[in-house]
Amino acid sequence: MAVLSPEDIEQFLDQGYVRLRGCFTRAAAEEHTRLIWDRLGYVADDPSTWELPSVHMPPHQRIDVRTFAPKAWLAACELVGGAERVSTEKPYTWTDGFIVNLWQDADRPWRPPSNESPGWHVDGNFFRHFLDSPEQGLLTIALWSDVDHQGGATYIATDSAGPVARFLAAHPGGLLPGPDPDDDTPVIPYADLGRQCTDFVEATGEVGDVYLVHPFVLHAKSQNVLRRPRLITNPPLTLAEPMRFDRPDPADHSPVERVVLRALGVDSYAFTPTRPRAHIVSEMSKNHERMRAEERRRLARTSPPA
Fold it and tell me: Judging by DSSP bridges, how do beta strands 219-220 and 93-95 pair with one another?
C-alpha cells in the first residue's frame, strides 16, 4: 500500500524531505516520554532546574517502527526502494534517545535560518561517508512534542542534497564527519556546503509528525526562544546494501538514489569507493555510555521499591 502521493515523492526529489502527519498518537508519545524528566534530573515545571540548554540523551529502549508507526515505516520503505532494501541486521527502530531543546540560545534575538546559521551537518558520526553509504539511508525526525516556530525546530536546508552529493562524488576515498588525529581522511566541510544553500525550513509540527529526510540534506539545531521543551529523535535507517546509481533498469532507482542522480545531472552513475568503509566510535557514543549510567542511577532513586 502506497503512503506517499506523487506530489510527496516530487517534493522529496526537489527538497529532500517529506512530512508525515499523525504517525503516532499523543497518548503513545506521552507513554514513551514519561521518564524524560527523571532521566534528566530536572523538574518539568521548574525551568530554574534546566541546567543545560539542550541535551542529546542516550538510548535505553528500542521500539519497532513497523507496529508503532506503520505509516512512517511504509513511507520510509517507499523512499529507499522497498522493505527488502532495509537492513535486517540493523533493523529500522526508534529509541528513547531524545534530543531535548529547552532554551538553546534563548537569550539572543531570534534569527531565521540562513546559510550562515551555525551547526549545519549531515548525520552519521559513526562511519566514513561515501556517496553510496548504507549506514544512513534515510534520516528521521520524529516529533515527541509539539514544535512551534521559534521553539527549537530543526532547520533543514532544502537545497543542500545537491552540493553534498557532488562533494561526496568528488571524494571516492570517503570523508569523515569530524576531525580524527588518527585518520588522514578529509573532513566534510559542512559550513562551506551550507553557504551554497538558499532555501530553508523549520521542521515544525505536532506530536506524532515525522519528517523523512534525505541523508545528504544539511540540517542544524535552532534557537528555542519560546523556552518550551522540544522533544525529538532522529534515528537512522540502515540499508541492506550500499546505494546503487547504475541499476540496469532505471525504474529500480529509489527516490533516495534519484535525488543523487539529479544532483549529478546524469541518468546513471557508477560509483566505487577507493578506500575501505570504516566504523567510527564517536565522542557522542562515549559520552552516552557515561550518561546512560547516570540516568540509571537517577531512575533507581526515583522509582518506588518493588
Answer: unpaired
